[in-house]
Specification:
This protein has 8 helices and 2 strands, in the order E-E-H-H-H-H-H-H-H-H. The chain is mainly alpha-helical. Strands 1-2 form a two-stranded antiparallel ribbon.
């Protein structure tokens, strides 16, 4: 639907393409892969607390897509795509029951619409979470300061190289990977 004809009311996010995204009323037609790639490439993981100059959600997502079977690689690439529209909460906040009760339905609503937009099942395949944690384990070793929980990750570190792509490059790599995975 044309954003100018949209009759929804309430708070919305204006994306880089000019779309209006309503977090409490997400719709399939609001989802744009270019908006996702652009935003995720500019969002730093761990709220920016990394030893790399910039380590984006887009780079993390590409790496996750490389460590799973090809048939679920698109799910892995898009597993954090909701963050392009609603951002993310740091883990210590996300686990608080009071916030979780409000945040989880919003986040899952956006994830569900994204999965529908790209013809994917929801919830994501369980191996996507395992890949996410394996890449997380690699990130802990390479770009995170030492923390008490750093050695408690349930997965072995993924065999990937975390390099800290610049935003423009991360956006390009994300879209390149998306196009590879969407090829017939």
């Amino acid at each position: 639907m044309d954003g100018l004809l949209d009759t929804r009311t309430g708070s919305f996010v204006t994306t880089v393409s000019g779309r209006r995204f309503f977090p409490l009323d997400p719709r399939v037609e609001d989802i744009c892969i270019n908006d996702i790639a652009h935003s995720l490439a500019r969002q730093c993981r761990y709220n920016g607390h990394v030893r790399a100059g910039h380590y984006s959600v887009a780079e993390h997502s590409v790496l996750c897509s490389l460590v799973v079977d090809e048939e679920i690689a698109l799910q892995a690439l898009l597993h954090d795509a909701a963050e392009a529209y609603i951002g993310d909460l740091v883990r210590p906040m996300k686990v608080l029951p009071e916030l979780r009760a409000v945040w989880t339905p919003i986040e899952e609503g956006v994830e569900r619409v994204i999965s529908e937009r790209f013809g994917l099942p929801f919830p994501w395949h369980p191996d996507v979470k395992r890949a996410d944690n394996a890449v997380l384990a690699r990130e802990i070793l390479e770009i995170r300061p030492a923390t008490p929980w750093a050695h408690e990750c349930a997965e072995l570190p993924a065999d990937v190289e975390v390099t800290g792509w610049q935003p423009g490059y991360a956006e390009w790599k994300f879209l390149k990977r998306f196009n590879e995975l969407c090829r017939p």
